[in-house]
Design a protein that fits this description.
Helix content is 73%, strand content 0%. By secondary structure, the protein is mainly α.
Length: 263
Amino acid sequence: MNLFIARIQGFIKYKDLMGQLVSRDLKLKYRRSVLGYLWSILNPLFIMIIMAIVFSHMFKRGNIPNYPIYLMSGQVIFNFMNLSTKSAIQSINASASLLKKTYLPKYVFTVSKITSGLVDCIFSLGALLIVMIFTGGTFSWHLLLFPIVLAQEFVFNLGLGMFLAATNVFFRDIQYIYNAITTAWLYLTPMFYPIEFLPDPLRYIVVHCNPMYAYVTQLRCLTLYNTLPDLSMVIYGTVDAILILLIGVWVFTKTQNKFILYI
């Protein structure tokens, strides 16, 4: 318990540094860009338009009431996980020069990458709102509950990001293996097709063993179906997030003292 309190105190102590790191990441991402932060809205919007044109006719019989919103909701959630964790993989190795010169809690670099991804995700929600406006989506009070979904996914991404960042210090192949995993993960998450299209055995695996399905489904309940997510789905997403966070923090904590020898 004392160790947990110490970690929280350390987190608070370095909150300003993490804020500066997040700001730096966002500025570097859009440096010399004319539209700047607008790309966080335009990029997912363009991808959604292309995918909607390609897939909407393929999945007409899936009985999806508003395919663009269905597609965009999945894209926002999955991209948050995909982009933020891929950024977190290199968070320790990329900060080697700074870590060798001064003492800093190593986790701040990984946390800042996931937080930067969260900021990008919030901007992407602007693209989702635009899609809802132009496709006749229904706005209800359920939309106000989106922070619950993002909070679950943020915790999940943080745990996964810390695990990946720690293991990548010792095994540089992790980043390449993870690229292959996320590609398969993308197609095993019903982003652009209805879950009913999967055969029963595979559907069971996706529903019960894929946290992204839980987060995507929750956001779709709020934006597309105008209803509260099923409580079991919220519990499932929360438990998965906490479990991955505990694993990620444990691996990171156990290995961080050896980072300096490998970076």
